[in-house]
Amino acid sequence: MPALLLASLLCVPAPAGGASSPTAERLVRSVLPPERHAEIVEEMTAQALASLQQQGARPAADAQQRLRAAIAESVPYEELVAITARIYASHFTDRELQDLLAFYKTHTGAKLTRELPAIMGDSMRETGRIVQSRLPALLEKNGLVQKRNPQDAPARSGASDSSKKQ
What we know:
Elements: H1 3-11, H2 22-31, H3 34-54, H4 63-74, H5 77-91, H6 94-104, H7 107-141, H8 159-165
């Protein structure tokens, strides 16, 4: 789920003021090159179109192209680099940024860059399934929703219906 990477970067509030650093900018450009940004925009476009279609919308023939342009324009690559570099610089010293940059230039660092979005997506999907299975009972337990009365359940059809007719 590579779109998660861009989404996670966009969800982090940028610190007020604050300056970037050349090392932070090099790090961001290394981890998120322009072609990767374009791929993420494509993935976000496909997800947005699928969501619209699931909601019953019938997008026009050129909707994908227009949506892609809107998403790309919402956070242009250079602006994303500047925001993310400023955020990195606020969390790491220049020496730490150099260490990160060196790590991401290794085979393992490059693989982490490629795999992290999928890892995050897998983790979010699995966690989401767990939450969905446990949350209804926990909402009841904590008094956030009214407890269900088993007698209020709709009558089942089938064998029990035929026994009522006798």
